[in-house]
Amino acid sequence: MSARCSxxxxxxxxxxxxxxxxxKRPIGYDGQFFLYIALDPLHxxxxxxxxxxxxxxxxxxxxxxxxALGRAQEIPWALLVLSIAGVVAATFAVARLFExxxxxxxWALLLGLYPGLLVAVTWxxxxxxxxxxxxxxxxxxxxxxxxxxxxxxxxxxxxxxETMLLFPVALAVWLAWKQRRVREAIYFMGIAxxxxxxxxxxxxxxxxSDGAPAQRGSRPSRSAARRSVAVDRSGCSPALFxxxxxxxxxxxAWRAYRALEPELLALLLNVLVLVVxxxxxxxxxxxxxxxxxxxxxxxxxxxxxx
Length: 306
Description:
Layout: H1 2-16, H2 30-39, H3 51-54, H4 59-67, H5 75-100, H6 109-112, H7 115-122, H8 127-141, H9 147-160, H10 166-177, H11 182-207, E1 231-232, H12 238-259, H13 262-276, E2 284-285, H14 297-303
Antiparallel strand pairs: 1-2
Helix pairs in contact: 2-4, 4-5, 5-7, 5-8, 8-9, 9-11, 10-11, 10-13, 12-13
């Protein structure tokens, strides 16, 4: 009886917050759960698969909620606007970095037009905002001249997407090894990692979980026109995703060892952790009936109401 009442209460909450009752299914994608958190930060856990994992990247959805002034009808547009702003900020910061090094700033368009960021904007993922913050952090770092301001920016980036903490790790290594500023490197890492650690501790106290992702990989929901399309990456050659980036990482490692530049160290660490050492699993993408695609604001938002 209590379980039935709880189910009815959860349905009532979802309807009052403008979220479909089918959202509780353990199939979805990050952008879908960011939408739920932005709509209702406190009760979004009631319709998530692994709430502690979904809540571990709160900066993006909470910023969206603030940007939309808490108005549910404006939140999907705020998701899109904030993602685009993240790409613009990343491109601008990298262009300024290139100008500082007397390199043509037009090369920054390689970042702004990178397909991965386009995917992040399309699916309402946190990467666009996270890389924007990380790029601004690199600009503020300025070869160790403003490490505290950069650490604060990296702290926000790490709370947006934890993989962004690879950047302050590389810069801290550069400060301690090349500049011999060990104490400053420790402070720098502490400030950069503090928000992420605080979020993890808060989630452990609130949700009694360490925030580990579910063993069953989440699947991105697709629009109705693409529901029948299955994507199977198992036929792709491993050389495309492992061997070639591995060779590039070795080249960067050689350059980083000779020059010991902070930007090269950050690139090396990102390639090693996210490409070479990351375990890639072929997945098949499907979409459950009734699933909406939150990134397509003008199409999916009416479907997610009621």
